[in-house]
Amino acid sequence: MLKIRDLHVNYGGIKALKGININVPDGKIITLIGGNGAGKSTTLRAAVGLVKLSGGSILYDNNDLTGIKTKDIVSKGLVLVPEGRRVFANLTIHENLVLGAYARKDKLEIERDREKVLMLFPRLKERLKQKAGTLSGGEQQMLAVGRAIMTKPKLLMMDEPSLGLAPLIVKNIFEIIQNINKLGVTILLIEQNAKAALEIADYGYVMETGNIVMEGPGRELLNNEDVKKAYLGIA
Amino acid sequence: MTFEIFLQHLSNAVSLGSLYALIAIGYTMVYGILRLINFAHGDIFMLGGYFAFYALTTFLMPWWVGFIVAIGLTALLGMSIEKVAYRPLRDSPKVSVLISAIGVSFLIESLGVVIFGGIQKAFPIPDLFGKVMMIGNIYIVSVNFFIPVIAFIFLVGLMYLINKTKTGMAMRALSRDHETARLMGIDVDKVIAYTFGLGSLLAAVGGIMWGMKYPQLYPLMGVMPGLKCFIAAVVGGIGNITGAVLGGLIIGILEIMTVAFLPDLTGYRDAFAFILLIIILLVKPTGLMGENLAEKV
Ligand SMILES: Nc1ncnc2c1ncn2[C@@H]1O[C@H](COP(=O)(O)OP(=O)(O)O)[C@@H](O)[C@H]1O
Ligand SMILES: [Mg+2]
Q1: What are phi and psi of B103, to 5 degrees?
Q2: How far away, in angstroms, is A210 Cα from ligand 2 center?
Q3: Is residue A163 within 8 Å of A137, Cβ to Cβ?
Q4: CA A52, A56, A61, A65 torsion: positive or negative?
Q5: Within a 10 A sphere around the Cβ of B285, how many other Cβ atoms?
Q6: For residue B296, is pLDDT > 70?
Q7: DSSP-assigned states of every residue in B170-192
Q8: CA distance A56 to chain B (A)
Q9: Which ligand gives the minimal distance to the CA of A16?
Q10: In A49, A121, B93, B214, which residue has its Cα 20 to 30 A from A17's Cα atom?
Q11: Which protein residue's CA is at the shortest distance from atom 16 of ligand 1?
């Protein structure tokens, strides 16, 4: 579904990505783990056209995304839940969800998706008229995910959805990710919480300073000694 | 001063304040979305007046047709300015865009002198707006009655658009986070263009009514109102529409009333806005309705 080939990204003189390859097959949960500054966010941002590629290519449904505007990429179903949630704090929860469906015309299905989202996140339903800025961190993450579902993703990319959330809510978020996947949405998940991510992932990639240094099925990586040492805090 | 005379001054003050409010909205909306002070906004206001002038005199349109045409043309022009002078600089440093805005302002003013001529033109006031009306015990020129009414109608329309429509939601979203707006599939360039169109439309309404209130036009007529309305936007809290309206009303009323009560200060009437600006910047730098924005010009 998504094929990243020899992707290079530079920020001025900084080489953030030095030729990475990632494959996201239809229907799977794929995870990309790695420490701070490894280049995980850059990878996703390149996929949706928020940063320019310096080399390589990104294929989505066999179409090259180079030079395509973000709004058009999003309309094709390649959707990003950005790092730090980025809900529109000055808008109500209802309005945030409406904006998620901004480019869509299929009114009936939008309404159905809205109901789906409110069923997935009952806490949002009670607060529809409230400004998103008044929500707790966990609720904002749910809104960010709900808003992304309103965009009708085929491939949903999530940038550290568990960042800064309480353990109980983190568990909840990972369950929700699995549920969304079961609804038929392919997932590309970025995490520093490597253990939780690898546990639900079909396949994982490990990234260090702009390179993929290891890859394999989620279970395999979980049991890999190097991964354990570097990312799972187990000696 | 009798109560009647006071009311007469007040009607004049409110009508001027309403005009300032209409113009100030354009500054505040563009700033809210692009963090840009659109220096050409005062000149767009001037063009609105001139377009109406030519529609009524050269093209002999019925006044209401002429006004609509002029407002539409001005809105299109505002959108074109954004497209030509600001959009190509979207990823450039803020100061480049600011310089471009100043350049556009000078360009319009100079072209105005060349094309319209530097001599003042008498605005052809439709009868409806030129009558002297008696409301209760006071006489007012009907335009001073219509200005606040029309301004109010446009304000209600604007509030509806901003608060109830999807485009309005997108504008509010853009005022916080362009990148995430893109991720929602929002065509950011289009929404920015609408914002310029809307601000220019309101400026045109202001320019036309200004032409009827002070029935003359000249190419530099937008400079001083433009400055004062920018101040009104800052006083109200730049980026905040209600604040811009409030700021415009305050400056208009302050200006007229001070001159009315203290005729000796007539020569300083253009200074009041600046004094108010200094006071506000000292006392509440974010403006009356403003929030703390991380970034200020
Ligand atoms: N906008 C930017 N400008 C310059 N450098 C950046 C920018 N964004 C990220 N970087 C750099 O690129 C590298 C990768 O960053 P990022 O993709 O955010 O990593 P991660 O998401 O894995 O923490 C880091 O060295 C970071 O400092
Ligand atoms: Mg990151």
Answers
A1: -60, -45
A2: 12
A3: no
A4: positive
A5: 12
A6: no
A7: HHHHHTT-HHHHHHTT--HHHHH
A8: 22
A9: 1
A10: B93
A11: A39
Check CB contact under 8 Å for B176 and A90.
yes
Task: With respect to residue B292, please indicate whether it lies within any of the assigned structural domains.
Answer: no
Look at residue B59 and tell me whether its pLDDT is greater than 80.
Answer: yes
Token code pair at residue B126: 């439709």
Q: How would residue B295 be classed by pLDDT, with cut points 50, 70 and 90?
A: very low
- Helix, strand or coil for residue A159? strand
Residues of B in contact with A95 (CB under 8 A): 169, 172
Which tens digits make up the pLDDT trace of B240-262?
Answer: 999 999 999 999 999 999 999 99
Within A34-136, residue ranges assigned H as helices are: 40-47, 70-75, 93-100, 107-120, 122-125
Question: How many separate domains does chain B show?
Answer: 1
Dihedrals φ, ψ of A188, to 5°? Answer: -120, 110
Asked if residue B294 is part of any domain, the answer here is no
Domain edges within chain A? 2-231
Residues spanned by the domain of B201: 3-283
Which tokens sit at A194? 């490597």
**CATH code for position B37:** 1.10.3470
A151/B185 Cβ within 8 A: yes
Give the chain B residue nearest A145 (alpha carbons).
Answer: B184
d(C-alpha A82, C-alpha A156), whole Å: 11
How many angstroms separate the CA atoms of B290 and B292, rounded?
7
> A154 in contact with B at a CB cutoff of 8 Å?
no
Ligand nearest to the CA of A83: 2
- What is the interface pTM, i.e. ipTM, of the complex? 0.93
What is the per-residue pLDDT across A127-167, written as a single tens digit (0 to 9) for each?
Answer: 999 999 999 999 999 999 999 999 999 999 999 999 989 98
Given CATH 3.30.479.10, say whether it is the number of domain A2-231.
no
Distance from CA of B84 to the nearest CA of A (A): 20
Q: Has this prediction a pTM greater than 0.95? A: no
Evaluate if residue B284 carries a pLDDT over 70.
yes
Angle, CA B29 vertex, CA B26 and CA B30 arms, to 5°: 85
Does residue A206 sit at the B interface (CB-CB below 8 Å)?
no
